[in-house]
Amino acid sequence: MLKRFLVKQLDDKLEKKEVLLKGFVQEIRELKTIKFILLRDFSGIAQITITKENPLFNNFPKITLESVVEVKGKLVKSEIAKSGFEIIADNIKVLSLAEKLPMTVTEKGVNIELPTRLDYRTIDLRKPENQAIFKIQAAILRGLQEYLDNNGFLHVFTPALMGAPSESGSQVFEVKYYDKKAFLRQDPQLHRQLTIAGGFERIYDLGTNWRAEESYTSKHLCEHHACAVELAYIESEYDTMKIEEDLVISALKRVKKDCKEELAFLNADFRIPEKPFPVLEFPDVYDIINRMGKKINFGDDLDAEADSLLWKYVNEKLHKEFYFVNKFPFVLKPFYVMRYDDAPEFARSVDLNFRGLELSSGGQREHRYEKIISQVKEKGLRPESVEWFTKFFKWGVPPHGGFALGIERLTQALLGIDNIRKTVLFPRTPDRFLP
Prior knowledge:
By secondary structure, this protein is α+β, with helices and mostly antiparallel strands. It has helices at 114-119, 121-124, 128-150, 189-197, 237-258, 260-265, 284-291, 304-318, 369-378, 387-390, 407-415; strands at 18-30, 34-41, 44-51, 68-77, 85-96, 154-155, 161-162, 174-177, 180-184, 202-210, 223-232, 279-281, 322-326, 339-340, 343-347, 349-354, 357-364, 400-406. It folds into 2 domains: 7-96, CATH 2.40.50.140; 122-278 and 320-423, Bira Bifunctional Protein, Domain 2 (BirA Bifunctional Protein, domain 2), CATH 3.30.930. Helix content is 27%, strand content 27%. The strands form 4 sheets. The chain has an 8-stranded mixed beta sheet, with helices on both faces. The protein has a 5-stranded mixed barrel with strand order 1-2-3-5-4. A 3-stranded antiparallel beta sheet has the order 7-9-8, with no helix packed on it. The longest helix has 23 residues, at 128-150.
């Protein structure tokens, strides 16, 4: 049986040898003396040629655009084909005949509105530019895991179903759990903390999270994925920042190494950042934003305009793209965040930003039982509602912290993609949960 080759595997060693290709028909050109097919597989595009002298010329099978075909033929060099090779076809077999397409699939795409593209997402995913996005995203994941696996972090899985909301009840999806009520997790953090309390010192979880936000912006999803990291025996939240710097750099280096063609195809470029990343702390953050013309008061959260102004400051004054924002007002943060003992109005809470887009949230957690219970009450929660989590802190928990780095956010920011939905195979938003 003839071995199937991918387009990217065609090289000089195979010249004048018979090869077998399988893929989608991207283009058909029929002239008086010659016929061409552009065959696309996941690795690239090959030119299939049938000359008038070829018996196949007059027995050309019925083929439509995006039909799936199998081609056997001789590989020869070509000055016309982009790849430098063409296949002189001996046989073409139609594996699946496509009906008329609801939208066009071309090498560089056409101007079709995003909602329409998402309605026909499977067809849309066939576009090489979309496949390039996900090849790069896969490289990001490889780079993240390489660093974590090589630095003593254990890959674990924490629950996606929660018996109680992980943060607040306003942004969670409720699901039926037998005869009880359950919730999809917003973040795996609480169970990561419980895993640290169980004696694990360095862990990470690659998983799905859900937020029932009524948000339709270009950077929000109802279902997203994160690389969530937790580590024990830290001195402060700055220890988590050092890990995150190395983690991000590892991911970016892997993309640079593995995805040169995809980055060029998307006209995307980025620099490998130098350490350390700048750290902006509150209340100085408020001062910076106020000096740039936006009035913002202590305790106010940063909106899109404030984020944009902060990015402008970092870009113009510090000449950096990655930067941390630390020491948020505690009023903005959940009960489990550690506060500064000498300045309790501030939390050891950290965001990582890239070109103005928030990529992660984290910091140091409170590990002292009495402090946790005090903060639970301060936040207006009933202690018994979070006892399933807090009770374990009675029995000794090491100082710890971590962060959750958004995979789609990092992909979007790195490639300069205008809408985060393009970084998800099948995005879930308030008005979309099909296909």
